[in-house]
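Lab notebook, bench 4. The sequencing result for the construct came back, and we need a structural model before the next group meeting so we can plan mutations. Quick request posted to the team channel:

Model the 3D structure of this chain.
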Amino acid sequence: MVMPEAARRWTRQMVFALPDDRNRYELIDGELIVTPSSAPPHQLLVAGLFASLQPYLTRTGAGLILCSPADLAFGEGEILQPDLFVLPAPVPGPLTSWREVTALLLAIEVLSPATARWDRGLKRRRYQRARVAEYWIVDPDARVVERWRPADTRPEIVDVVLEWRPDADIEPLRIELTALFTQVLGTP
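Done. Here's the predicted structure in token form:
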């Protein structure tokens, strides 16, 4: 979705002053990103990924998975709202403010027509600059995951089994993508 005033440099205070209109607001490098509420297939895919990651993280103690809205910031004047994100262990707890989140093991965005441009461009570059260990862009239409790491100039495209190892000392998580996409979205 196009920003209301493309030439304006937005601040956190300006964004927080906007009315609650069910849109999702993010702010990166002074640029306001406005996206509408997501559709049910998007939410079902987010839920499926959460259900795949949460037991693994609990069992291994590698981190804590959460979902937006979250108002994350790795620098001044930004608001980041990844669909899902994993805080590294040990998790400072209990969390009382999003400002306490200073690093992520993983950020996940599920693409939609309204977010694809931002997820693949501005947001990807911001997560890479923040040294987020992995950034997954989940494409429900292509039924693939684009995996980005901080130094990558091109993504790794995963279409069958997504393997994630947040720590070399623990076993990897394996997500059967074909099964996940079929369960959530139906047959191709």
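The longest helix spans residues 40-60.
Will bring this to the meeting.
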